[in-house]
Amino acid sequence: MGAPSSAILSEFFLQYIESNQIINILTKNKILGCFRYIGDILILYDHTSTDINNLLNELNQIHQNIIYTLEPENNRQINFLDVTISTANEELKFNIYRKPTYTDTIIPYSSCHPTQQKLAALRYFSNRPDSYPLEQEEKDKEKTIIQNIAHNNGFPSHIINKFINKPPPQITNTTPKTKNKNNKKLATLTYVGKETCHISKIFKNSNIRIAYKNRSNLQHLLNQKTDKKDIYEQSGVYQLTCSDCKKTYTRQTGSNFEKRFKEHLQA
């Protein structure tokens, strides 16, 4: 897992060796193109002028803790991130790629989550085909897959049709949006249903931005200790009260309380 800064420092280091060592290796081996996203790399090369195994060996000699592996194309296609890239008649074709372990499980419509959170997956799925140069046939296949995913998770037909039939997004302005100088404070509310939404509307015109959280998650469930340690097996500060004069005796012990109480009785 590492520290929160691990990912940033790792990226800095990779960019450093890319600009100082890897670029020279790629040039020497006549690589046509190299594209990296975090730990996945796509390389374009001409097999008549490049020995890909020799390239792999050179890359693995850069640093002992950075090991590269090779996955060549199969049947003139290769998977990179969430896209399958294939070649046919000297043309590139693209399709959405899903791993063999992929399941169609998303937040069910009946789940006690904010509506925007439940619709987030469908919104992403429906926008993704328009982000890649897919042919219309592949886009239609993707729509069918999205319909099945939504149906299997209990979404009503009118919501499914809304996402399936919506027009592709239009890019009207590429100018970066300026950040709102009025920095709002963030507050979180535990989502328990529509009542939480009604409460959040109270803060609509305030300087507070509301975000929802849900306690029914793995972290909350796994952190619940089922085997609570007996208090008498623990150590710490204790207090004894005299049954005759009602005076109290307060002390701290490194032994467990049961052992310390027995010592008092034997004294």
UniProtKB/TrEMBL annotation:
Q: What residue stretches are annotated with the GIY-YIG domain?
A: 233-267
Pfam families for this protein: HTH_animal (PF26215)
- The source's domain of life comes to Eukaryota
Its recorded name reads GIY-YIG domain-containing protein
Q: Which organism is it from?
A: Coptotermes formosanus (Formosan subterranean termite)
